[in-house]
Amino acid sequence: MAPPLARSAPGELNHWWSQLRFRLQNRKGWNEMLDETFLLQNKRTNDIPLFFAAKENSAGCIKKLLDCASTNIFERGALGETALHVAVLNDNMDAALVLMDGAPELINEPMTSDLFLGMTPLHIAVVNQNVNLVRSLIGRGADVATPRVTGLYFRKRRGGLLYYGEHILAFAACVGNQDIISMVINAGASTRAQDSIGNTVLHILVLQPNKTLACLALDLLLARDVELDQAVPLDMVPNYRGLTPFKLAAEEGNLVAFQHLVNRRRVVQWNLGPLTSNLYDLSEIDSLVADNDLSVLELIVGSQRREARRILEVTPVRQLVSLKWNLYGKHYFRLLLLLYLLYIGTFTLCCVYRPLKDAPENYTVSDMDKTIRVQKTLKESYVTHGDNLRLVGEMISVLGALVILLLEIPDMLRVGAKQYFGQTALGGPFHVILIAYAFLVVLLCVFRVSGVQGETVVMAVCLVLGWSNVMFFARGFQMLGPYVIMIQKIIFGDLTKFMWLSFIVLIGFSTSLWMVYMTQDPNSLPAYRSFPITLFSQFELSVGLIDLPVDHTITTPPIVHVLHCTFSVVSYILLLNLLIAMMSDTHWRVAQERDELWRTQVVATTLMLERRLPFCLWPRLGVCGLLYGLGERWYLRVEERNDPLVQKMRRYVQAFSKDEDQSKEREETENTDTSKGPGSPLIRPKHRGGIDGNRKSLACWQMIRHSALGLDVEQEEPEDDQEVRYV
User: Fold this and answer.
1) How far apart are CA 482 and CA 492, in angstroms?
2) Which residues contact 278 (CB under 8 A, 6 or more apart)?
3) Which residue among 314, 393, 430, 518 is the one 20 to 30 A from 657 at the CA level?
4) CA nearest 505: which of 440, 446, 454, 578?
5) What ranges does the record give for the region Disordered, renumbered to this chain (predicted)?
6) Which segment of 184-198, 474-488, 514-528, 654-668 scores lowest on mean pLDDT?
7) For the chain, what is the radius of gyration of the CA atoms?
């Protein structure tokens, strides 16, 4: 069973129920199955003589066992492996050579278990980067094109630690060994092979965590693919989702791979000192150029990864978005805001001046009902000239609601309801508000025509929804847009959690108070005359809308004072302060992403306008390559100034500020650790005290001196525990 994924509330409930049924059936989980399988594999390796000899690299024992008639060379372990798999898995060259010479049938034998299905010895040798073993396997006839690893352990899944594709060339590219890559391609591996989900080797490289190594392997593969002279370049081959490696890098937020592919496609026009003029290919970036496929801009907006939004800062995406918004987008959007304000204002006037007449005698049944006016019938509603004027406004309101439905529903079906309503950048809850408003307006029309009494409630909800939707247009202004997102996150995050806690507290205290007041006269204290009224009164009290509803002129049981005091402490002191703290944290987190959220909103709004406005209102930006001998592609010319001195100074400032912050954090960590006493576990940092800070400062000053003297500082490959400096 695969590890759990990030789910919504209904999905989480469904997953919890499936997990419960799974456990009740006494079935084993994913991790438990892996533990038992690997332990069994280790046991069988030690129990089987041929496997044990291959594991211990005992070539002499293997020769004797192969000469023995009772030895089964095709015997399998717990993972479906053969003896050659065991030898290659342990990098035992001598044992592997003896097995390949004595039992050549094992060279192309794949593993047969569900976890490692399809894995050959060559797959293992490539992943372990054993060049000599790879050369020996290929020299003895190992197939490099056909074998595919389709086992569960190597499939692309969330929580998986390894995704190297299925083919041997993909494994070689992911480990980044150029010698092995060239060796496998020369042996006949196809650079265009696709796995079960359509990913080519370039797609798989985009998904790797080591981005620098992936880009080097990507260049080598593209260079080898050019030699084949294919009609479609390798980096333009889509997977089964229709995503090329370029688009996949944008969706995954792989900034390094995306920038690398952008630079490979650009055309440098000229260089003049620090100035550079480049032509950037817009084929997959611009939504107007990317025909019917999803463009990079649409993928970024639809992605839930924060890293994807950072691609909007990459050249030429930043320049393209800026041109689209400043030339056309913001003007159309603000015109749309003006039209919507006129529309919702018209609907509001129609509601305010809706047809009413005096209530007939004996209309009310209870003395508490103070109704004096009721709704007119259909024939009575349209008599005077004022009624006819209101009819025009009502027709505009209904037609506007129908237009909203015709625009929103196709977009919802195209994107999918979950993403359409769940993505904050796409509008999120505002689409729900707008569609609900439009449906209710149409329902109002039905009520008016059929003469149903009850349009007051529907009309009130429509007004709230309609005017709340005005906040959607705040995304057209840089100052207001991020704050609307902040309100959404607070409502659907912090406030939702707070309401759940408040509901539990309200139910408990309201029930307790009702148990006391249910024996009292209902007229003595109206705030507690029934359980629903008690619940509502406690809610009003919790938010400070009313004073404490206790009448001291009548006898009050002491438990009532105890309950009120306890409720005040829990509600006012605990829950409200908890809500304030949660909202402060949300405000801080959204403030960190302010610029990113604004750019994402601009892109989402621009794409929405492009889909809904006629094409003639959106001139295509850039230049056509056909006019200048660059093929059937559109390009955007960007002039860039690369001042090395300014860039170096910025990097120096960042390096020093980073060192100071890290040294402070280490000092705080040391103080915290030493305060724990001798009995507590102590985690010591690698570099301690002021010596480390002085060493780093000297290193930074040394870099400045080398830069000023024009000396080249040798760049070492950063390890996991090293710090990378950008100079």
Assistant:
1) 15
2) 266, 267, 268, 269, 315, 637, 638, 639, 640
3) 314
4) 578
5) 657-691
6) 654-668
7) 35
Which of the listed ranges 77-86, 541-550, 651-660 does the model predict with the highest average pLDDT?
77-86
Strand partners, 370: none
Per DSSP, which regions of 252-405 are E strands?
267-272, 275-281, 356-358, 373-375
Task: Verify that 501 and 375 share a domain, yes or no.
Answer: no
- Mean of the per-residue pLDDT values of the chain: 80
Residue 501 token pair: 């806690």
Residue given tokens 């009902």 in the structure block: 369
Q: Can you tell me which residue has the tokens 């998986």? A: 160
In this structure, the answer to whether residues 588 and 648 fall within a common structural domain is no
Dihedral, 49, 55, 58, 59 alpha carbons, nearest 10: 90
Is residue 725 scored above 50 in pLDDT? Answer: no
Gap between the Cα atoms of 516 and 320, Å rounded: 68
Kindly report the CATH number assigned to the domain that includes residue 211: 1.25.40.20
Bridge partners of 275, per DSSP, are 272, 641
Q: Could you tell me how many residues make up the chain?
A: 727
In the block, tokens 């906040």 appear at 471
CB-based contact 150:107 (threshold 8 Å): no
Which position has the higher pLDDT, 445 or 364?
A: 445
Rounded Cα gap, residues 35 and 254, in angstroms = 33
Other C-beta atoms lying within 10 Å of the C-beta of residue 588 = 9
Entry pTM: 0.72
Pairing outcome for strands 373-375 and 623-624: unpaired
Structure tokens at 229: 């002279």
Stronger pLDDT, 211 or 482, i.e. the higher one: 211
Q: Which of 211, 235, 259 is the last residue of a domain?
A: 235
Q: Are 100 and 79 in contact (CB under 8 A)?
A: no
Residue type, 627: L
Task: Tell me, yes or no, whether 80 and 211 share the same domain.
Answer: yes
